[in-house]
């Protein structure tokens, strides 16, 4: 049996995409929550026991999500709330006995990714190799590679040779996707790493009491563990195998990453509409996803890569390209929207132009008529009464 764990992290302005009212993993991309796409892919595993969501958000944030997907797929979704930021492995170490109860393998997935996860294919690879850990990886451009954990593998055996987390210089274009399979022997490894860190920290503080003034708070927290920096380097290299994913993958750290993810998912579901599991939306021409309750004027032109949420009202002559409109957005006549994320219940006036590299308009924003916004971030509950080129409106 398999248990799937999704690592959620916690509240952070950096990763909140400007909403502040919603946990980042629940932000809708292509009509579905970010982690909804992951659960949709993982639930296809025939020997999946249940899901565990783990993070330091308040558990109430995910209550509706749990109920919705439990009903949809018939699998229990538990939530384990961390009391503080514990890193990518701290929560795993603290709850490792519970997580491995009645199962053989643990699937661990970071929540801030978008990909066409082929869970069964990855699991078959993990069982074939019989290693303690199997890591999913992908090839990226040389320029992008230093943003991620870079890996070097043995081309004959797929065993991990070297791992460097966000190196300063180019090492390899094979990067960590943030998706892992662990077997039962991982329990011993992570508990040993946790005990080793606690012992080293206690000894260090005793011998050098001043160290607490020059180290980061996470380095001084015994419960904080990094899966990439603390745990993986202690697993024997010949027990870690590198699985190379051949589909698409996108890390989601910013608003531009959200738009890229939206584009990738719309293309994927456009080619495989039977995989899109949300009856409230219809995938139309040229990668356009429209909620059935939205009102679209016949003269409006949408696409490519556009999502129109529930209750949206798109007026006459409106043009929208490469954008996400969440529920309740109103775009009045003859406005132009491009490369934008427009949040709940925002109103764009007549003859407006919103464009640039990436625009983000938070919930309940009002943009007056005939304004030009370029490369603007606008936080929630703002009224925009003059044109703006760049900057943040609060």
TrEMBL record:
Residues 4-207 form the Nucleotidyl transferase domain. InterPro entries: GMPPB_C, Mannose-1P_guanyltransferase, NTP_transferase_dom. Signal peptide: none annotated. Residues 288-387 form the Mannose-1-phosphate guanyltransferase C-terminal domain. It comes from the Eukaryota. Coiled coil: none annotated. Pfam families: GMPPB_C, NTP_transferase. Belongs to the transferase hexapeptide repeat family. PANTHER family: SUGAR-1-PHOSPHATE GUANYL TRANSFERASE. This is Nucleotidyl transferase domain-containing protein. It comes from Paramecium pentaurelia.
């Amino acid at each position: 049996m398999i248990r799937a764990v999704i690592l959620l992290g916690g509240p952070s302005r950096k990763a909140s995409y400007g909403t502040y009212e919603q946990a980042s993993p629940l932000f809708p991309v292509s009509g579905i929550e970010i982690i909804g796409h992951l659960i949709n892919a993982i639930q296809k595993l025939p020997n999946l026991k249940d899901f565990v969501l783990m993070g330091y958000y308040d558990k109430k944030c995910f209550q509706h999500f749990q109920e919705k997907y439990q009903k949809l797929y018939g699998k229990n979704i538990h939530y384990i709330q961390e009391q503080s930021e514990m890193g990518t492995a701290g929560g795993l170490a603290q709850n490792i006995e519970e997580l491995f109860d009645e199962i053989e393998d643990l699937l661990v997935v970071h929540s801030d990714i978008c990909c066409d996860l082929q869970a069964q294919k990855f699991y078959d690879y993990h069982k074939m190799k019989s290693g303690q850990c199997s890591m999913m990886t992908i090839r990226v451009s040389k320029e992008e590679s230093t943003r991620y954990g870079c890996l070097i593998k043995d081309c004959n055996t797929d065993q991990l040779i070297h791992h460097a987390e966000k190196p300063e210089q180019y090492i390899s274009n094979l990067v960590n996707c943030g998706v892992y399979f662990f077997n039962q022997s991982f329990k011993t490894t992570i508990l040993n790493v946790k005990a080793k860190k606690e012992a080293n920290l206690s000894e260090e503080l005793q011998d050098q009491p001043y160290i607490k003034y020059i180290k980061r708070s996470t380095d001084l927290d015994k419960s904080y563990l990094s899966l990439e920096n603390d745990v993986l380097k202690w697993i024997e290299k010949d027990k870690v195998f590198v699985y190379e994913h051949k589909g698409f993958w996108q890390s989601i750290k910013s608003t531009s990453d959200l738009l890229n993810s939206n584009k990738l998912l719309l293309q994927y579901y456009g080619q495989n509409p039977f995989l899109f599991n949300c009856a409230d939306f219809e995938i139309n021409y040229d990668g356009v996803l429209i909620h059935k309750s939205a009102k679209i004027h016949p003269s409006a032109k949408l696409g490519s890569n556009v999502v129109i949420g529930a209750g949206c009202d798109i007026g006459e002559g409106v043009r929208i390209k490469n954008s996400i409109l969440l529920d309740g957005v109103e775009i009045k006549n003859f406005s132009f929207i491009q490369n934008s994320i427009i949040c709940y219940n925002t109103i764009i006036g007549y003859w407006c132009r919103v464009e640039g590299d990436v625009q983000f308009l938070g919930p309940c924003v009002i943009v007056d008529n005939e304004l030009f916004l370029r490369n603007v971030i606008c936080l929630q509950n703002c009224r925009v009464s003059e044109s703006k080129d760049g900057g943040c409106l609060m």
